[in-house]
Each structure stands twice: as structure tokens, then as C-alpha cells.
């Protein structure tokens, strides 16, 4: 992997405070999408097969362009990707039709492993996506991206195709916050900055070098993805990082700069629920490895307040959501028990 001593992401003045392992990892395991030219990847691919999994819930606006771009650049023009699967996560819009018309294989989330009880959430869609595909390498791409290019996929595959010791590659980017007012160039990733990053630095400082620990664009080896549990909600990404660094060490992980990413932002209440799910995933992992002993487990119900109409004008309406950290077991364990 290219030596990034003087390149992005840079360790600033506080480098002395970073665990030495992180500073070294940043140099060894960070690269740019442009470091992985398609011709080199095609040469390295050999018989390795590649699946792209796109989880999508109500993404009719964007999912078609993402599928078309991957199929045009990486299936038809150059044979890097072997299958493109959209997991339709109970969409109420035309996501499934749009994705199929763009050339994806579309699987309904609940139709995969149908004998299991259905669970809800993004992590569930990803787990079913792994179950529904066969590639040796699996690339995940969110279905709500506005500025997707095929270099997302080539960048994520680069370290996996050329280095057997890399197990899992995370994307990173600049994240503008778009909508409402003027664009904030790095205003996106609010849950990342307010919740995930502080928790990671407190409890897994070896992961502190990840620029976008919650990125929805990442790739992994099938045997690795089938060996870890998947939290079924938005805790899935932080769960992956914690579980893989714990089982395989930091050098099994890499990150690639994919440039800039814009996506459909969720509202504040949705981000509050996401934050709660991420916190509960962290507490779950801390408890499992005996680092947190709580006299009373955290409550899993989140009360949020919105505006509703009452007979006396605007009322405060309370909505309760269950954020329980449900998990799917490693897919490999299902096969062993079959
Ligand atoms: O039940 C669900 C919820 C979401 N999605 C899809 O998952 C992707 C990402 O979901 P989104 O709601 O757009 O998440 P973000 O607000 O963008 O959250 C960020 O942070 C999350 C927590 O780590 C990650 O899961 C996301 O990938 C990452 O983009 C999109 O294609 C969704 O359609 C599903 O398939 N099923
Ligand atoms: O990754 C995150 O932090 C959340 O998805 C929120 O992202 P946003 O602030 O760009 O909407």
C-alpha cells in the first residue's frame, strides 16, 4: 500500500498524543481511490469474484443512477464486478422497479432466508445482502448517494485485491451538509462527530484514525463478513469496526479516500434514534468484553417530542421508539448449525 507519511489524512500537531500504533496505521493503511487504477485491479482480480450490495429503503430517486454507473463502468466496459444486488428494504416507493430496470438483481429483504423471523433496519438489509450474494469480496454502497462514481468501488476494492492481509476497507470523504441554508463544506456526518467519534476515542482509541467510521461505503472479504454478527439497525457499522479490530487487529483494516460524498440527510429525530442505536451497540460490545459492568442495563426506549395539533393549538407530541440492539449471528454459524 502506498506510504502516506506526508499525505492525507495528516496527523496534526497532536500526533504525539495519538497511540503510536494509530500514527503508523494511518501511514500504512490509508490511501486514495486514485491509487488503485482499474487496470491494476483487473490484473490483480484473477479468479476472485466481487459482489456489490446496495441496501435501499425508499431510494427511487438515486438508486437507479448508482446501479447504472456500476454496471456501465465495472460490469460491461471492464469486468471487475460480478454481481450488483439491491436489497429492497421494504420500500414504499418504486425502488425495486427502478433498480431492476437499471440492471440490478433485486432481492426483497424479507425474502432472503425466509424461515427466519424478519427483523428491521439497515444492518438487517446488509446481512441479507451478504446471504444473497456469492462474491469472494463484498462492496457495500448506500443507495441514497447523489454524487456516486465508480471510483468508490475501485477504491474500496484496491487494498483487498492487492494485499491478502487486508480484511475490510472503509471509505472516507468530505461530507458537506446540503439543504436549508448555505452549504456547510464539512458540516455533514453529525452523528459521526457528536456520538461515534467521541465514543471510539474513549473506548477503542486504536480506531481513532478512521476519518468516517460510520461510512456506508466499505468492502470486506466474505469469510470475514460471515464470521461477525451484524447489529440489525444503524449500529451495524460501528459494530463491524469493533468486532474486526478485536478479532483480527488494526492492520486487518484499511481506509480509502473517496473524495466528496453528498447524500439525503435524515431529520434530527431520525439522527437521534441513530445515535441511540450506536450508543447501545457500543455499550453492548463493552459489556460483552467485560469492560463495562452496569448495575442496570441501559433503557432501550427513546422518547422524542414533536409538534402535533391539539384542541388548544400546537401541542408537544411524544413518540417512543425501541432502540434495542438486536443482532444477527455470523452467517457462517448458521451454516455450521444447519
Ligand atoms: O431500514 C433501513 C434503513 C436504511 N436503509 C438504507 O441504508 C442506506 C443508508 O441509510 P441512511 O438512512 O441514508 O443512513 P445515513 O443517515 O446516511 O447514515 C450514515 O450512518 C449510518 C450509521 O452508521 C450508516 O449505516 C449509513 O450507511 C451512513 O450513511 C440507504 O441506502 C438506506 O436506504 C435500508 O436499506 N434499510
Ligand atoms: O453519518 C452520520 O453522522 C449521519 O449519517 C448523519 O449524517 P449527516 O449529518 O450528513 O446527515
Word description of this protein:
By secondary structure, this protein is of the alpha/beta class. The chain is 36% helix and 22% strand. The strands form four sheets. Strands 1-11-6-9-5-2-3-4 form an eight-stranded mixed sheet, sandwiched between helices. A two-stranded antiparallel sheet has the order 7-8. It is globular. 3-phosphoglyceric acid binds next to helix 7.
What layout of secondary structure does this protein have?
Blueprint: H1 20-29, E1 30-32, H2 38-45, E2 50-56, H3 63-77, E3 83-88, H4 95-101, E4 105-108, H5 122-132, E5 137-140, H6 151-162, E6 168-174, E7 177-179, E8 181-184, H7 190-203, E9 218-221, H8 222-225, E10 230-231, H9 236-248, E11 253-260, H10 268-288, E12 301-310, E13 313-322, E14 327-328, H11 331-337
Parallel strand pairs: 1-11, 2-3, 2-5, 3-4, 6-11
Antiparallel strand pairs: 5-9, 6-9, 7-8, 10-14, 12-13
Helix pairs in contact: 2-6, 7-10, 9-10
The protein binds uridine-5'-diphosphate-glucose and 3-phosphoglyceric acid (3PG).
Descriptors:
alpha/beta, single chain, 338 residues, 11 helices, two-stranded antiparallel sheet, binds 3-phosphoglyceric acid, 36% helix
